[in-house]
Amino acid sequence: MEDKTAMNTYLKVEDVANLLEVTPSTISKYYLLFEKNNYRFKRSNKGGLMFSDNDVELFRKLIELKNSPGLTVEKAVVQLLEENIAITTQVIKKVEEELRGKFLQLEQEMNERFKLINQQLGRIEGLTSKVEKSTTSSKEDREVLIERFKKGTLTADDVLYIMDNLENGERLDLLSKLYDLHYNFNPNHPNISEIEWED
């Protein structure tokens, strides 16, 4: 049983002959000449010939061309196939050019994206480097301050530096302890709700 889709899409020898108003034997002669020159027609599962619209158009051109002066049917077949190859080659070249253009555009877009990514990576590396340097200097500063604290040689600038580098909660906690220390060592000083800083 033949495929109904194929029946709707392709024509048999008799159908093409009726369409072009020639005999089925003429169509058989034509398709054999085309196949002799390496053109292949579609066949059904049972081996029956199935002609597409393009095949019918090829036969139509052959019927017109074979009557040209100096051309035999076989020469007309060769000429049509050469023209067909030339057209196919042009189509392939056009597709290749379009694909090449799209590829170049894609390559350019990818290069721009890689450039942006590299710039962002550079910024991240710069920030990481700054953080590492800051962390190293903070550790060194902390060690120096601990030594001064142990020796009892902390300056007012050291205390301000410590205050600047504390989180808000830690800063308030330290101020509260300093406030308590101030009143423990100065019991006669009047107790007020806020610390008064002297200029």
Descriptive overview:
This protein is an all-alpha fold and 199 residues long. The chain is 73% helix and 2% strand. It has helices spanning 4-9, 13-20, 24-36, 53-65, 73-151, 156-164, 168-185; strands spanning 42-43, 49-50. The relative contact order is 0.05. The chain is built from 7 helices and 2 strands. The model is unreliable at 1-7 (pLDDT under 50). The chain is rod-shaped, with a radius of gyration of 47 Å. The longest helix is centred in the middle third of the chain and has 79 residues, at 73-151.
Describe how the helices and strands are arranged.
Elements lengths: L3 H6 L3 H8 L3 H13 L5 E2 L5 E2 L2 H13 L7 H79 L4 H9 L3 H18 L14
Antiparallel strand pairs: 1-2
Helix pairs in contact: 2-3, 4-5
What are its keywords?
7 helices, mainly alpha, 199 residues, two-stranded antiparallel sheet, 73% helix
